[in-house]
Amino acid sequence: MAYRKIINDPVYGFITVDDELVYTIISHPYYQRLRRIHQMAMAQLVYPGAVHTRLHHSLGAYHLMCNAIKELKGKGFSISAEEEQAAKIAILLHDIGHGPYSHALEQVLIKNVSHEKISLMLMEKMNAELSGKLEMAIDIFKDDYPKKFLHQLVSGQLDVDRMDYLIRDSFFTGVSEGVIGYDRIIKMLTVHDGELMIEEKGIYSIEKFLVSRRLMYWQVYLHKTVLCAEKMLVNIIKRARIVNAQALSGAFNNFLHKEFKEEEIENHLDDFCMVDDYDVLSAIKSWALHPDKILSVLCKGIINRRLLKIKYSGTIIDDNVVKEKTELAIQYFKISNDEARYLVFTGETGNKTYSNKDEHINILFKDGTIKDISEVDNALINQTLFGTVKKFYICFPNMELL
Amino acid sequence: MAYRKIINDPVYGFITVDDELVYTIISHPYYQRLRRIHQMAMAQLVYPGAVHTRLHHSLGAYHLMCNAIKELKGKGFSISAEEEQAAKIAILLHDIGHGPYSHALEQVLIKNVSHEKISLMLMEKMNAELSGKLEMAIDIFKDDYPKKFLHQLVSGQLDVDRMDYLIRDSFFTGVSEGVIGYDRIIKMLTVHDGELMIEEKGIYSIEKFLVSRRLMYWQVYLHKTVLCAEKMLVNIIKRARIVNAQALSGAFNNFLHKEFKEEEIENHLDDFCMVDDYDVLSAIKSWALHPDKILSVLCKGIINRRLLKIKYSGTIIDDNVVKEKTELAIQYFKISNDEARYLVFTGETGNKTYSNKDEHINILFKDGTIKDISEVDNALINQTLFGTVKKFYICFPNMELL
Amino acid sequence: MAYRKIINDPVYGFITVDDELVYTIISHPYYQRLRRIHQMAMAQLVYPGAVHTRLHHSLGAYHLMCNAIKELKGKGFSISAEEEQAAKIAILLHDIGHGPYSHALEQVLIKNVSHEKISLMLMEKMNAELSGKLEMAIDIFKDDYPKKFLHQLVSGQLDVDRMDYLIRDSFFTGVSEGVIGYDRIIKMLTVHDGELMIEEKGIYSIEKFLVSRRLMYWQVYLHKTVLCAEKMLVNIIKRARIVNAQALSGAFNNFLHKEFKEEEIENHLDDFCMVDDYDVLSAIKSWALHPDKILSVLCKGIINRRLLKIKYSGTIIDDNVVKEKTELAIQYFKISNDEARYLVFTGETGNKTYSNKDEHINILFKDGTIKDISEVDNALINQTLFGTVKKFYICFPNMELL
Amino acid sequence: MAYRKIINDPVYGFITVDDELVYTIISHPYYQRLRRIHQMAMAQLVYPGAVHTRLHHSLGAYHLMCNAIKELKGKGFSISAEEEQAAKIAILLHDIGHGPYSHALEQVLIKNVSHEKISLMLMEKMNAELSGKLEMAIDIFKDDYPKKFLHQLVSGQLDVDRMDYLIRDSFFTGVSEGVIGYDRIIKMLTVHDGELMIEEKGIYSIEKFLVSRRLMYWQVYLHKTVLCAEKMLVNIIKRARIVNAQALSGAFNNFLHKEFKEEEIENHLDDFCMVDDYDVLSAIKSWALHPDKILSVLCKGIINRRLLKIKYSGTIIDDNVVKEKTELAIQYFKISNDEARYLVFTGETGNKTYSNKDEHINILFKDGTIKDISEVDNALINQTLFGTVKKFYICFPNMELL
Fold first, then answer.
1. Which of B239, C137, D177, D328 is packed most tightly, with the most Cβ within 10 A?
2. With an 8 Å Cβ cutoff, is D371 touching chain C?
3. Looking at this predicted complex, what is its ipTM?
4. Is C56 domain-assigned?
5. Of B179, B207, B314, the CB nearest to A211
6. ∠ at Cα D360 (D356, D366), nearest 5°?
7. What pLDDT, in 10s, does the model give residues B282-297?
8. Taking CB atoms and an 8 Å cut-off, how many pairs form between chains A and B?
9. Residue C101's pLDDT band (cuts 50, 70, 90)
10. Which pTM does this prediction carry?
11. Nearest CA of chain C to the CA of A72: how many Å?
């Protein structure tokens, strides 16, 4: 009998693994570690269901890759067994380089090294262990493989990563409006001159996809309470460094208190794989009792969900407001102006619905013409939406909760 | 024990009826007749699941009305028990005046009288039977009741009619992308100066709602095959009149071959209520064997799903194309030029995503300001979408199928 | 590009047709006629969503057959391309012989000929038209094909017919408790000595399947109001015969007033295919005004949903009760005792959860042993459930509604 | 405007909190701590979606309590506003006393004190803080309140706790067959002589509920891999005690290495609330490098999902098999016979589908009679299912993985 494992997934029903190399990768400790990294960082403080993991998301993206390849092969595009396997592995491993609380702490815990770079380092390491079997997967991941559409399925405007996270995040948060017609989009995929495109009939599905993403950004990923908690997390790390607070776990301490250069990371990959959300949250729990008032206030805030207050604004926050809130914090906590900046701070965040400047979503019409989704007749997604929408925010202590 | 019936609904789970007058109306033959009128006319030829009825839709809209009123009362807006009952009845009966195949044959079978007018006539008749108990419901339906938001819940940009048909139609067609976040929209409803509005937090849900509607129009309601079948239906009625084809049912014959004026309809309401999709489809089945070639070709087309071919175009159909197709039909069927117009015909159809010229969707901001959904910051729904998008079509015999 | 059509299905998402012969069959008028036969006869009077058609169910069963075959091939069982096509066609056509209101009028409209026999006649006819291309499909349907498991997928304890109707009927009624884990059951299918079996891991899913079926029978198929309406339908046919009431449609009249022998049916197949739910309901609508009081009462009852009252009982209905109700009907309607039997009648209905006397559900254990589902350790489905559970009923006029 | 918060829940859509005291409790650090205790302990190693928390489950059970009370009030049963609030609080807090990995480590980390006892201690403590506002909730929880059905909704055969965990666990695992018709069961609830019962029409739903629970036990809660991982967890705790391994967190160390008596717990409640899954998993991660081979093997097993092998058997495990596996372990790991018992061990587990010896599920018939669900006519749940079904297991190192 053929090799075959099925995994229950509440989103897709069943995920089938029918390739031994794929199973070997899933079983690897580097991959299993993704069980301990939440997909959505602090979003669970607003959406209690949003506790799913990076491992689950990667498996889901792998499932969509299987579907997409099956569909494209069904339409007559040539994809060899080896290419199929490589594309599946590339998507399985695309997030392997994420650190604790992924995006929320990216570039904070390890400065100047993106998670994609670390993913690549880990893939290379696994490739060596597996005597070169990941070669083609790595090429696809790096966009060095001639059939460009395989890379675009891994990373691009219509990649299966994005599709899975939108579906999965809306599923687990319960924000049902974020649901996209992933199965229809996959059925509309096509290839033209080696590039991934969408058939004409899929235009409305793509519009809907972009609008769902827009909604998920503003309603979930950039939900003000979620943003506030994630900024508190960043400030906790920064403050812990300043006051030299020790984490319970040695591996975490390394990354917290040392600053590695990109080229040094490669020598600490095993250490890196020891650190996950559990270390960070355990540290925060212990720091809730830390003598440094700033650190303990922030940590208690996260642990007991007594968050700072946050206000969003369409325009930059007025200096006077910042001053006033800072004064109050200084008086209340008896801290210096410098210290108050951990509790009263401003920033900006933003998202763009679509832009035709980056990678395009191309529609392939029946007559052979190709148009960007923003240029089809009566486009919903038009130039007025190309700019990044910025929101400004200020966070400050919620005196009622203190 | 209180009066209480529950009805299973695949869309909402259970619909509860806990008011005897409401139950009396549901049990009335006029209402039960809606079981025999399909909600989506010929859409089932493309979407086999789309066989749900007007009765089911009305019950669904009633359910949403119950939810909406509960929500508004929960927010502290005053709605009396009598108003609540009246609003529920108004929505239950809003479609009671639909004839067979509803929109597809509206203004064809009965010229110059909209279904809303007939709905009103039937409500008045039921009101007389029920000794005036429907008075307030009728006022709400006609927008004569002071609390304007009650009418807006029955008929307006955000009415529960529209919400139910979008949800229900996407449910039964399986076009899952049409799904709207109806429960969230209902939770975002509010009232300001007697008008129905949406809270600021609901902006993205409303955008999504409009985009879902846009998608449903182009992908389902105006799907070219659906449109083609519905235009064939219209031509069947027209041709039957010309060749004086008799329907099997007497009541249907009346409306088919006589032409009533608006003021005459009132005297034929019982007859009107005898006619439904079953009479029309039975007639079509019998006419498939009618000696008139035109009529029989069209009727066989509907019965056996051998439809005319249809082509959509962004521009008006070229006269030469029409001539060419007409010639072919004339030769093939050995019919006159006039007759060929039943088989080869052009037309236009259209839909607009939103326009702020008609009724508005107003957003009530926390600071008390009110903005049209197309005027909020970074609106997805903007002026570029206000115009009606037109599509032109030509239908003609599919020679391969003949 | 390969041949490929996709059909939206609210139950499974998309149904893919990628075989031209299959598409030819779907396009055949015999098959298209199934659009006009409701899957669940009168159940829609209780469950307003239950208006789906036999065509939709057949497509669904076809979809599950595709899945089942893919799964079995994935497990290494040999199924040739021709066998695959034949099995798919056999399931597509398994219900083609159903008459109007299918089970509710089976053996009533055409006596002594089951719908399976008519299905076979129609298949033979189509086979002749299609120059023998349905040969193997017919063999599988008749269980004349050596690979017995292919027939068992079409008709047996675990066939895809049963799976689809349970899922689909629970979906459209909204009785969500009837939902079965069809995808898991399909993943647990296996073949042993040419027979279809279930892997050990699937035991609980099968138990659940049988319990869901049990629930669907008592809660839906044999729901007392549904049963009552269907018995009224039978009595309408019987009464129409007695009083020689004419239907509007000639084809229906043929079957109503003539009595064909099995061997005669073959010569009237085209006529048979002209008759569907639309003829019957149109006739009933016209008979609501029929001078025969009995007929008109029954027909009005169906049309306006003013049904007879029905009572279920665990024991046979007491003669005195029958007499009393009959007396009341005689007096009220001024009819004879014989006539009253159309309005006051008793009967029994029943269902068995499982019996190991008919075809078995066999479990294949990892160690190679085979056990009937009722004989595995700690079986939920045990001997105490083997008998047919009977319920007795009496129907009689509901005086409150008259 | 009234007090009103809505929380997105993927299972029920929205959970509404419209009572300030309820919100105060939800905001309490004791309650927020439940975010850090997984509902299903190690089940996530088999079902990657099963990472939902005790907090989420408690909120869900609270939601069902709101529905159940609304339904019962709708049926005319008297429930005062105070009772309603108290019942909601009782269910919110019913799991507050769970320690890390809840059931998996119950009676292991803290011997001889059930989580219910600790829940009660914590409620008393919160009651004192909130000046007695939880008095009635505590009475209901302890079954000291006269309206017994309120306690039965919190804890009993049909409590909302059980309903929520079955729905939620099947939702998050993706074992869709575990889904129960909770909304129908709630609609069938009734009260008779102060006791919670089910209306006659609900019999099949209850059968389905018991079968779903049966399936969830064997397929999920007692899934052999889940059980194995949870037994490894227990052995980790035991071994850590023997070798005096220190956890990173002080609070956890207290409970790990000290043994509190029941009466002492009360003085350590705040400490108890400091310990959660994060401490245990962080400790395990650190112990994966512990010099004690046994401890490190077990810990690595959990962290990297390289679990012991487990075999289930219907009969007690043969001593020879145990000896053989033990020998192998002794040789491979070079450990003593005593030590080998952490890696090679046997046990039994079990579940019963229903028993009428414990609390009953009573059906209230229309004629006023009451029957246990196992005694209704043709009961699916009958005496043959009353006993506890036992399964025996042996766990031992998987030599292939080492």
1. C137
2. no
3. 0.95
4. yes
5. B207
6. 120
7. 999 999 999 999 999 9
8. 61
9. very high
10. 0.94
11. 11
Whether B220 has its CB under 8 Å from any CB of chain C: the answer is no
Smallest CA-to-CA distance from A174 within A47, A74, A296 is with A47
d(CA A214, CA A216): 6
Is the Cβ of C13 closer than 8 Å to some Cβ of chain A?
yes
The count of structural domains within chain C is 1
| pLDDT at res. B359 | 78
Which tens digits make up the pLDDT trace of A95-139? Answer: 999 999 999 999 899 888 999 999 999 999 999 999 999 999 999
**Nearest by Cα to D174 from B397, A151, C183, A273:** C183
CATH number at residue B391: 1.20.1250.30
Q: Does position A166 have pLDDT exceeding 70, yes or no?
A: yes
User: Quick one: pLDDT band at residue C402, thresholds 50, 70, 90?
Assistant: low
| CB nearest to A75's CB, from C2, C14, C183 | C2
Q: Are strands D389-396 and D309-313 parallel, antiparallel or unpaired?
A: antiparallel
Instruction: Show residues of chain C in contact with B175, CB under 8 Å.
Output: 8
- CB of A10 within 8 Å of a chain D CB? The answer is yes
Please indicate, yes or no, whether residues D43 and D150 belong to a single structural domain of this protein.
yes
CA–CA gap between residue B204 and residue A215 (Å, rounded): 6
- Per the CB < 8 A criterion, the answer to whether D402 and D329 are in contact is no
Residue of D101, D168, D278 for testing the chain A interface, max A β-carbons within 10 Å: D278
Does B271 reside within a domain?
A: no
Q: Which residues of C touch A6 (CB under 8 A)?
A: 187
Please indicate if any CB of chain D lies within 8 Å of the CB of B74.
yes
Residue numbers of the domain that contains C174 = 5-93+134-222
Q: What is the pLDDT of residues D22-71, one digit of tens each?
A: 999 999 999 999 999 999 999 999 999 999 999 999 999 999 999 999 99
Distance CA C115, CA C103 (A): 9
Q: What string of DSSP letters covers D46-80?
A: TSTT---BHHHHHHHHHHHHHHHHHHHHHTT----
CA distance C392 to C349: 6
Helix A81-92 to helix A135-142 angle, to the nearest 10 degrees? 70
DSSP sequence for B333-361 = HT--HHHHTTTSEEEEEEE-S--SSSS--
Are C392 and C313 contacting, i.e. CB atoms less than 8 angstroms apart?
yes
Would you place residue B179 in the very low, low, confident or very high pLDDT band (cuts 50, 70, 90)?
confident
Among residues A224, A241, A217, A244, the alpha carbon closest in space to that of A105 is found at A241
The size of the B-D interface in CB pairs under 8 A is 26
